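User: Sequence recovery, please. Input:
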């Protein structure tokens, strides 16, 4: 259709001029001033003084009278809008749509709208509820993105450097330190140590970049008798042989059992930025743990003050002699990890004793043990029971204890020494603990009588020369003797003598035991015994108190030799006084 040229007036357009409602150049970008630009060059043209959609000196587009072309329309023959193809206006960034409408997927309606005497093509939005603009949502999302970027930048600025191992990033450093802290806790419990909520582990940087040393610093931790200024352990770290991230393994035990001072804290690092506490972090040195009730602790013990028993404290057996040399009741024994205190309701009984050779009639070591009241005996390590050894031990006993012993089983004999005062038990062999047990008599006397022998059956007057060499108090008379005194507090007074007669065929030898007797100071007469099991031997002894000191040996009467010879001295006797010092 041919469109007539518009006449002068509002809504009209002079030939060769831009239509009303359209600026003389393209609009500028959002809020930006447009530089001088030639038509057809796109965005960037400054807006006219009246604003977009209005020509200078013309009324606003919405005040245009009927018959004027729409603001976004264009009369035939007019040049196209800047950046818009001929034939119709378009929205920014969307072909065929009017400027200012949202560029979305709604279908726009295109109608032909003719004014009187004028034909023009116009864009009319569809009759429907318009969609909410996405611009606020996009602005909000943009703000969130900006905040996230800002926060991320702050994190990168504030976070500690990631630790490395020989230039390799450490894989899961938090897990490595967690493993080290578990090792620290287990080790502290094993040694009766203490930790608290401030205890942790740190990587220690070498001071040259972010590389760390081959041990984690862990603490604070304190042990019995520890020093609060020395409260940190090092647990070794080892890495895999890979070339990527370093995977570290933590040692179960520290490099040294002795804690040390905190190293330079400026070199300690953790992913969470946590720093070591001041000093020992509020930890106090723990007290020694309590021993189990009835426990026996083996020494030796440093700095334990023993007191020597006031009375006899020795026992002797076939193989060994045991002597208590010290007793104590300490409140605590041991040092460091070995320190212990008594169990609740109990006390410590400490004992020190020596082991020496015994009576010398056995080479089988004795067995020792500790017994409190009627409880079972707790054995002593046999390795400690050797001649010349000194043994220390502590026994935990009830606070009201009245009976506690060191028990020694030596051959067929069981003997004890008190852990309370060192006193020997009632069943101990008393004579074996004596210091003075013999006397060198060296006396000779002669006695006349009658004698017979297998070669001289007719009684013949004889004179017997009797010599007493020595007397000795013994529990074990010697080889061939299998009997013992009648009680532990008794002893045999053994007689070493020899007699010579003038009978034909006779030789020097011991006289028959029946010719001897012993008179005690109170007048008691003790008969003699031949203790030898073999009839060809004579072993004359007297069963006397173990504390025997003085008596008189009497020789006389009638005696028969093993070969059948007989000596008869009638009522005649000779006497040999004997005396063994006490003790």
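Assistant: Recovered sequence (583 residues):
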């Amino acid at each position: 259709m041919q469109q007539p040229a518009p006449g002068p007036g509002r809504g009209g357009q002079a030939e060769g001029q831009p239509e009303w409602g359209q600026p003389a150049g393209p609009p500028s970008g959002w809020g930006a001033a447009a530089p001088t630009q030639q038509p057809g060059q796109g965005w960037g043209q400054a807006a006219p003084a009246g604003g977009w959609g209005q020509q200078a000196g013309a009324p606003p587009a919405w005040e245009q009278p009927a018959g004027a072309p729409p603001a976004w329309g264009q009369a035939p023959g007019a040049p196209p809008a800047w950046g818009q193809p001929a034939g119709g206006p378009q929205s920014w960034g969307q072909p065929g749509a009017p400027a200012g409408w949202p560029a979305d997927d709604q279908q726009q309606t295109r109608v032909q709208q003719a004014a009187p005497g004028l034909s023009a093509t116009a864009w009319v939005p569809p009759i429907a509820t318009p969609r909410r603009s996405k611009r606020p949502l996009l602005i909000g999302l943009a703000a969130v993105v900006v905040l996230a970027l800002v926060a991320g930048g702050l994190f990168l600025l504030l976070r500690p450097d990631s630790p490395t191992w020989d230039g390799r990033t450490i894989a899961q450093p938090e897990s490595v330190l967690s493993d080290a802290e578990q090792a620290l806790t287990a080790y502290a419990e094993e040694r009766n140590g203490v930790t608290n909520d401030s205890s942790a582990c740190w990587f220690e940087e070498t001071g040259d970049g972010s590389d760390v040393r081959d041990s984690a610093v862990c603490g604070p931790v304190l042990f019995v008798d520890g020093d609060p200024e020395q409260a940190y352990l090092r647990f070794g770290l080892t890495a895999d042989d890979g070339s990527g991230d370093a995977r570290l393994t933590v040692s179960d035990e520290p490099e040294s059992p002795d804690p040390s001072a905190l190293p330079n804290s400026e070199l300690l690092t953790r992913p969470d930025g946590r720093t070591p506490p001041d000093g020992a972090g509020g930890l106090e040195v723990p007290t020694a743990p309590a021993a189990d009730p009835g426990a026996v602790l083996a020494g030796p013990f440093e700095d334990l003050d023993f007191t020597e028993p006031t009375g006899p404290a020795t026992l002797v057996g076939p193989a060994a002699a045991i002597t208590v040399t010290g007793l104590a009741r300490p409140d605590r024994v041991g040092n460091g990890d070995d320190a212990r205190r008594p169990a609740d309701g109990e006390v410590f009984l400490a004992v020190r004793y020596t082991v020496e050779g015994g009576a010398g009639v056995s080479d089988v070591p004795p067995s020792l043990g500790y017994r409190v009241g009627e409880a079972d005996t707790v054995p002593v390590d046999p390795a400690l029971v050797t001649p010349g050894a000194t043994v220390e031990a502590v026994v935990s006993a009830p606070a009201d204890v009245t009976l506690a012993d060191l028990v020694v089983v030596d051959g067929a004999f069981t003997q004890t020494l008190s852990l309370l005062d060192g006193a020997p038990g009632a069943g101990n062999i008393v004579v074996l603990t004596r210091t003075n047990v013999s006397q060198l008599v060296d006396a000779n006397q002669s006695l006349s009588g009658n004698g017979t022998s297998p070669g001289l059956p007719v009684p013949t007057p004889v004179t017997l020369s009797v010599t007493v060499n020595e007397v000795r108090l013994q529990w074990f008379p010697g080889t061939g003797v299998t009997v013992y005194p009648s009680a532990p507090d008794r002893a045999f007074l053994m007689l070493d003598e020899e007699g010579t007669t003038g009978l034909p065929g006779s030789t020097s030898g011991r006289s028959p035991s029946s010719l001897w007797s012993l008179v005690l100071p109170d007048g008691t007469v003790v008969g003699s015994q031949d203790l030898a099991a073999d009839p060809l031997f004579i072993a004359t002894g007297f069963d006397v108190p173990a504390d025997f000191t003085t008596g008189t040996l009497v020789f006389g009467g009638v005696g028969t030799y093993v070969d059948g010879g007989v000596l008869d001295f009638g009522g005649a006797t000779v006497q040999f006084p004997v005396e063994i010092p006490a003790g």
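Residues 41 and 83 are 7 Å apart (CA to CA).
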